[in-house]
Amino acid sequence: MSMYLKFRIGKDKRKLVPINGFELNDADSNNPQWIQGRQNEDGGRQVFVDLEDEDGSPVNLTGANAIFKGVLPGGEYKIWDHKHSTIIDAQAGRFRYTFPKRAMAIAGSYKQAFFEVYREGNKLATLEFNFEVLADLVEENIIPSDYITPFEDLYGKLKEYLVKFNGDFEAAMAQWKKDVADLITELNADVSGINLTITEIKTQLSALEDKIKADGLATIADLNALIDPLIERISQLENYNSAISIGTDVGGGIRDIFTNQIGNMRSRINPDIVNIGMLNDVHYTDRDTYWGPDSIAKTGITHILNLASVSDLLDYAVSVGDNTDDNADSSKFSEKRIMDYGTTWFTALECPSAILIGNHDDNSSHALVDGVTGDDFIVKDSYFAKAYRQNINLFGEKRNGDSNYFYYDIPDKNVRVIGIDDYENPHTFDDGKLKYPRIVNSIITDTQLNWLATDALQVPSDTHVAIFMHCPIDGTTTDNPTNICINHDVLKSLLEAYVSGTNGTLVGSNTDFPTSVKYSFASKGNLIGVFAGHVHYDDYKQVDGINYVANLNSVGSDMPRPGGKEYFNTNDEDSWAVIGIDTSKRHVKLIKFGRGTDMDFDY
Fold this sequence. Notes:
Blueprint: E1 2-8, E2 34-38, E3 46-52, E4 64-71, E5 78-81, E6 85-89, E7 94-98, E8 108-109, E9 112-119, E10 122-128, E11 130-134, E12 147-148, H1 149-164, H2 169-187, H3 191-215, H4 220-248, H5 259-268, E13 274-279, H6 294-297, H7 302-308, E14 316-320, H8 331-348, E15 353-356, H9 365-369, H10 381-387, E16 398-399, E17 406-410, E18 415-419, E19 429-430, E20 433-434, E21 441-443, H11 446-456, E22 464-468, E23 484-486, H12 488-500, E24 503-507, E25 516-520, E26 526-532, E27 539-543, E28 546-550, E29 575-582, E30 587-594, E31 599-602
Parallel strand pairs: 1-3, 2-11, 5-12, 13-14, 14-15, 18-22, 21-23, 22-26, 26-28
Antiparallel strand pairs: 3-7, 4-5, 4-9, 6-7, 8-11, 9-10, 13-29, 16-17, 17-18, 19-20, 24-25, 27-28, 29-30, 30-31
């Protein structure tokens, strides 16, 4: 009997499920997929899987393979099967999988089940689905066990080795031991593979030892001499795996020091108004200078989880730049952290959201600090488009192509969220050096300003607008928020024209980035406020009738200011805000998490 699954990469999304007590169900996914079989079925249950890109086109599976991995009902036994899948139409993105009898050993719901699609050692996708095995009360003859086909194949070679080496058990075991070590090396990059291999090797070696004792194939001393090095290797892998588990569970997960604060935060969010989460200046990194030792810097990514724990109560959330920190050695280091951040953000949060770029994110500080030439160390904008999902409009937000800037209309709430990219710095060079490194240059281009005037700020008269950006507009909460601010004055004047409901043209004064913006606003706009980060302190000012807010940094260190390190591993380590907007009363209240201070104002 055949069943069918369809997955769309980039569109399908599951909620983040805690590792402890991991259990999936249909409600966890925006694309519920399920398979049902009967206990003891052997080859009779097939599934055809279609894999599409986010635009609906089929994924080319030429040269690819699919593995089925799962945790059987009850959570005690695992399956890892690379033998029963077949690519049947590579161009159409279709493969078939036939469930073996061992996969149907226990009745109930699989704790986890997914296909892993890979090509030449690189994972293309993991496709998760719900898998139920119906009971067979008439015939219950399968003894449950782990079923790991790479090791099953290798274990089966023992007989071949004995024949090959003319019954020389020592020679056969030497060859088998080498192959096992090679298999473990191959699986090192896969944590689940290490777990399964360790468990299965111990089980099989125990059985082999019993057989040797019974048949007298070798003495126990001979056996120990052969397998002790292998057992030592297994022990090393167990330690290695334990260390990896802590790192891959998003920095160890939500820490106990934040539990009470999270509960308090949830109780203070008013569900009857619009709520927007704002996180900024996380500076997630392993870098061991400026922000403090490695163990301290790594905790930043867990701050996403703190915000995510209230995200089911939010209408929207924005990470407002300096999400990661720069690194002096390589853009590859920064790219890894950027992708980790983006993946965690979009997996953990349960509300529509977006990520903006700050002055530290692209690694350009070393053009200034270290005098680096060329752009090999710089993270390119195309990488941000991928890591921050700008190229797929994940929640239906509107962008200018795959720009970092965007706007999003909260359904049925008459609120538009606008994200501004105030670091549109081009990668141009002067004598081999980056001319406008983002670390000290905030640039807004003519293209974005005209997009704001003719598209983003063109809203119905009853729509209320909240604007988010990394660096405060020069001359608002602070003067000269960074060394060079280009076209900030034009942006400020454009927002004032929107609030006033006027027409006209704005012309910038910078010759490297000339701008001419023609605007026409038919009525006075409802501008809630302009919310920024960057400066690492809380601040509020009303300038020319517009509310400007600076939000405290999330990173636990405020170095080089004195006393920054005392925040780490306390409930003041993190800070972010939920912005509650009552559009009927035209009132805003910022509820702060951690060491931030609540504030409220009218607009």
